[in-house]
Design brief:
The protein has 11 helices and 17 strands. The protein is of the alpha/beta class and 386 residues long. The longest helix has 20 residues. The chain is elongated.
């Protein structure tokens, strides 16, 4: 089973490029809105880091989601796409003074603070700007996630967040500051998580921490559990929309929210991952000593995930339905790691055939580089390809 694409238009478009099925994006957004509508005070912020294509951001904004930003550039991208400042949360372990001032000047909803030094700097800069910064403290819950080591973020050994043992002291410091308003707690345990048990473990840890705070008579207004929900890279056609129902139900069942508390999520990959494909063209079919190579015009500069994470993406020859042959699909970059897949079966490849690398809507175009002086890939939405 292959994806459905406007191949005639693709044939006259310079490759490589990203193609975004905006019908699927809108269906995904509707699924999210429908599910969170079942619960009181559930809020979803789209993680801009996954894909900051302005055309996609505008569609996500129109759907009513907020945004999670990790840089000043992402804050500006969100504002330019139409997001209201009061729907922007600003996370990240290394916020610069310039970025903090930008957030203060724009009046964003909340800073997710990751250390005592950062808290002190935000308080100082807010005083200089005559502002009061709303903040949540990112706590490292020491909860593991069944995902790639490079995208696990909730263990004590990771660089993110404040140690649980320091939580009480940091909250006390925040409450004593004049130019910050302590709103609540922020967490994030990793990315591409498909085992709901990982989120149950996070809920249990948050429940314990809330109980601990209440012994000190500290009440919080919000809990931000981050994101992390994964997608099915193996079956983009069969499972185009993630299981949002189970995801939100897990928190509704296991997280003990207090009356009036708001719950915030930061979803990225699960929003845009399946709607995007990297479209590339076969340059050469090369017979090696032991294997056959399909050499395409896209490379690790266009989609780095396979080289960086050994990530799997389903690959389809969308130009024909001929008999299957086994190929290594590789790019033109002068690196041995410029490989999209090894020993995969594709319909027999010929020079000029179009290849779709699926599930590339998240951490694809946004992570592209100009290594080897290559141009950045363009991104097109479905409406532009009709």
């Amino acid at each position: 089973m292959k994806g459905v694409f406007p191949i005639k238009t693709f044939e006259t478009t310079d490759t490589p490029f990203y193609y975004y099925d905006t019908d699927l994006l809108r269906k995904t957004l509707r699924a999210i809105i429908d599910e969170i509508g079942k619960y009181e005070n559930y809020n979803v912020h789209y993680a801009v880091k996954a894909n900051a294509n302005p055309k996609l951001l505008n569609i996500i904004c129109q759907a009513g989601l907020g945004v999670d930003c990790v840089s000043g550039g992402e804050i500006m991208a969100a504002l330019n796409a139409g997001f209201s400042p009061d729907k922007i949360v600003f996370a990240g372990v290394g916020k610069s003074d310039k970025e903090i001032k930008l957030g203060l000047e724009k009046g964003i909803y909340c800073f997710n603070v990751e250390s005592i030094p950062e808290l002190e700097v935000i308080n100082q800069l807010a005083e200089q700007c005559g502002k009061v910064a709303s903040i949540a403290l990112r706590i490292n819950p020491n909860v593991g996630a069944h995902t790639h080591a490079n995208i696990t973020t909730g263990l004590a050994e990771n660089k993110f967040g404040i140690a649980m043992s320091d939580m009480d002291d940091v909250i006390a410091k925040a409450l004593a500051m004049k130019n910050v308003k302590f709103m609540g707690l922020h967490f994030h345990i990793g990315s591409q998580i498909l085992d709901m048990g990982d989120f149950v473990a996070l809920c249990n840890r948050i429940n314990d921490l809330q109980a601990q705070l209440e012994t000190h008579h500290i009440k919080i207004d919000l809990i931000n559990v981050g994101g992390g929900l994964g997608i099915d890279y193996n079956h983009p056609n069969r499972v185009p929309i993630p299981d949002f129902k189970s995801y939100f139900e897990t928190y509704a069942k296991h997280l003990k929210l207090r009356k009036g508390q708001s719950l915030h999520f930061e979803l990225g990959r699960s929003v845009v991952g399946q709607c995007g494909s990297l479209i590339t063209k076969v340059l050469y079919v090369k017979q090696g000593s032991f294997k056959k190579f399909a050499i395409v015009d896209a490379g690790m500069t266009d989609l780095i995930r396979p080289a960086l994470y050994q990530a799997y993406h389903k690959i389809e020859n969308i130009s024909n339905d001929e008999s299957l042959e086994t190929y290594d699909v590789v790019g033109p970059i002068c690196e041995s790691s410029d490989v999209f897949a090894k020993a995969i079966d594709l319909n027999e490849c010929h020079r000029g055939d179009l290849i779709a690398i699926r599930s590339a809507g998240a951490y694809g175009e946004i992570m592209a580089s100009q290594y080897n002086c290559r141009p950045l890939p363009k991104g097109y939405i479905k409406e532009e390809m009709i």
